[in-house]
């Protein structure tokens, strides 16, 4: 969990006298989104037993997130400083995680069998294995126990180049996580890093952009050959025409065959291994307020949607992308969009 500091009115970090603070962090963002959508969700983390740590836990509890298994210890919460984008100027993020309470997490400190009893899915992020070796081992402990208990594992690549400082090889560690997951998400840049091959260009300037589906299918087939356990591979793509105008779309590579509520899109491709590659519409978001946590909103949308009955894989993908699109309109890391708002955004997209 992180405490975010940012300047208002698009000021640079060197300007003004005051910072605005908000809580966030990838997995916390997912948890809040799921709670907002009405799901039962528990967030498991380590926080310092200080007023700042307790305020963070209270913030999530007020938003409907169960924090009963919070591990209290350490001296500080990780922070980050955000300079928002404006016009032609890109955003800047400075992380300060060294010595955070979470970095002191070790295997055996959390009662995972108790935590996972009755759970449908465990969601984890590549960030957790990048902090320290002990935190990485604790993450693998949770994933392995989930596997033993028959709990599905959801995984967000969340590759952060500057976090990997304790000697682990990032691609190998992320690969170990992929071999244990049933559902994964990453953006196109992360897939490019994972595959070590150049991505097909996504340069959409309007919603008529044509995707190079055959090339993307080759990406997914190569990865699925390496990590055959994963049943759903999700890729998000964003083209920033300007700081306030983004074009979002997404792909889903899946072998699932859920009940169909409508016909699949014409761009659907069938692979020899029985998997299908689906694409969503493009959302043209003109008036971006805060793009932080968009990938987490996508992941939460997918986790929520997979709990619905009698919906197609195409519906899952479109719902998840609409949730991500809505996050761009909300200040802070958390996606507070409701189910009705997401469904409205989904139906209005063309």
Describe the fold and architecture:
With 350 residues, the protein is of the alpha/beta class. It is 32% helix and 20% strand. It contains ten helices and 14 strands. Strands 7, 8, 9, 10, 11, 12, 13 and 14 form an eight-stranded mixed sheet that branches. The longest helix has 16 residues, at 133-148. The chain is globular and about 50 Å long.
Keywords for this structure?
single chain; 350 residues; alpha/beta; 8-stranded mixed β-sheet; 4-stranded mixed β-sheet; 10 helices; 14 strands; globular
Main β-sheet, in a few words? 8 strands, mixed
Overall pLDDT, averaged? 92
Query: Helix- and strand-based class?
Result: alpha/beta
Percentage of residues assigned to helices: 25-40%
Strand content: 15-25%
What is the ordering of alpha helices and beta strands? Answer: EEHEHEEEHEHEHEHHEEEEEHHH
Flag low-confidence runs.
259-266
Report the span from N to C terminus. Answer: 36 Å
Radius of gyration: 19 Å
Task: Categorize the overall geometry.
Answer: globular
Distinct helical segment count: 10
Number of DSSP strands? 14
